[in-house]
Amino acid sequence: MKSLIAKDLLSIGAVFFRPDEPFTWASGIKSPVYCDNRLTLTAPEVRTHIEEGFAALIREKYPEAEVLMGTATAGIAHAAITAHILGLPMGYVRGSAKDHGRQNRIEGKLDKGAKTVVVEDLISTGGSVIETVEALREAGAEVLGVVSIFTYNMRRGLERMAAAGVENTSLTDFDTVAEAAAAEGYIAPEDIKRLLAFRDDPSDESWITAKGV
User: Fold this and answer.
1) Closest among 144, 165, 162 to 154, alpha carbons compared
2) Structural contact between residues 190 and 16, judged by C-beta atoms closer than 8 angstroms
């Protein structure tokens, strides 16, 4: 599954590597990778692999799940489609509460104690998904875990989620996608070491000039 999803994401440009011309994140960090999993929604075959993968993952790890909650906005569609496959209710968690109407942050019915699985598209530093889980816990949900399409496996993200008691399982990860990118000719095999250096410490930009080292 990890290899299949990795190749899928590369084939539609949802994950795109450019180690010699880094992208700049909003935080200012230079990154060798651009990730836009929203593109999976416009690629029916890839989308099917993802939703069936999510459904199988949830059946295996969280068979007691009673509701799926997507993260706004990228996780909403995936949560809806996966919930349809599983015959489960779904909702989503806003980044912040509405400033009008009922001022909801959680959309959709969520009973106290409901066994909940969060559906996310991407995990990097873990901050946004932790906020989502905390909002659900405050509302009385029992959050079983998180499923996501892709994770960077960044040390900071893993440590933050562990400290918050948040378990994430991704369909694929940075290492698998990097290996697939090299195998498929998207990047040179020697670039894998540079990419993993970025993953281990995004604030250290020495990987940019480490070509061929």
Assistant:
1) 162
2) no
The pTM of the whole model exceeds 0.70? yes
Q: 74-84 burial by CB neighbour count: b if 16+ within 10 A, else e?
A: bbbbbbbbbbe
- Shortest CA distance to 166 belongs to which of 147, 182, 146? 146
What's the full length of the chain, in residues?
213
pLDDT tens digits, 98-125: 444 455 789 999 999 999 999 999 999 8
Q: Which residue has the tokens 């020495």?
A: 206
The DSSP code sequence of 133-156 is HHHHHHTT-EEEEEEEEEE---HH
Residue 132 preceded by cis peptide, ω within 30: no
